[in-house]
Amino acid sequence: MVPSREEAERLLCEGEALHPGPWGNHSRVAARCAERIARACGESADTAYVCGLLHDIGRRFGTRHLGHVVDGYRYMLSLGYDEVARACLTHSFTTMHLSDYVGKNDLTPQEQEILEEAMQGLELTDMDRLIQLCDCLAGADGVMDMEARMADVERRYGYYPEEKREVNRRNRAYFEKRMGRDVYEVVCGGEDTL
Ligand SMILES: [Fe+2]
Questions:
Q1: Fold of 5-188
Q2: How far is CA 96 from CA 34, 67, 77, 125, 166, in A?
């Protein structure tokens, strides 16, 4: 189940009020990218939009690293939005290894258990891959060059796994093949910025 677009927008505004930061606009850009790519692929644009909008909703609980993944996952599950909960979880694990997360592991042992259990046997869907791609395209001020965004993350955290870089490129190539178009042409839709 997923929330309506209006409910998702309300949840994001509420989360931003609790913990303001660039993550709010980053989420809006990711949502708009996701809906455009989904539409171009003949997938549900509404589902893509709300999953993109709420993939970082765990940030409403404060500044955490890997913790925001588990916070968002549990919060969305508590509201019954399991498809969004998936996006909260999988957006950070492009290679499906828990070590894949770029940043600090600040999970409590209990949260670590929840994460491991949730990830066990999980197979990535196209929606998971779409949100991963859009996370990688979305800056807080608009669409970013994917390579520049990965370089920016690397600069901020000091590292960026090569395998993750490769998966991001593969995700881009996969959706471009499905759409038959360049991803930037689709997400920018003729506008300079989103
Ligand atoms: Fe994100």
A1: Hypothetical protein af1432 (1.10.3210)
A2: 20, 17, 20, 12, 13
What distance in angstroms lies between residue 190's CA and the mean position of ligand 1's atoms? 24
Q: How far apart are CA 47 and CA 4, in angstroms?
A: 9
Q: Could you report the per-residue pLDDT of 70-85, keeping only the tens digit for each?
A: 999 999 999 999 999 9
pLDDT score recorded for residue 98: 83
CA of 88 relative to ligand 1 center, distance in Å: 9
Residue ranges of domains in the chain: 5-188
DSSP state of 138: B
Distance 3 CA to ligand 1 centre (A): 19
pTM recorded for the entire structure:
0.94
For ligand 1, the distance from its centroid to the CA atom of residue 107, given in whole angstroms, is 18
Long-range contact pairs involving 160-167 (C-beta distance under 8 Å, separation at least 24): 160/102, 161/95, 161/100, 161/102, 163/95, 163/100, 164/94, 164/95, 164/100, 164/102, 167/94, 167/95, 167/132
Average pLDDT of the chain, as a whole number:
94
- 70 CA to middle of ligand 1, Å? 13
- Taking only the tens place, the pLDDT of each residue in 106-164 is 999 999 999 999 999 899 999 999 999 999 999 999 999 999 999 988 998 898 999 99
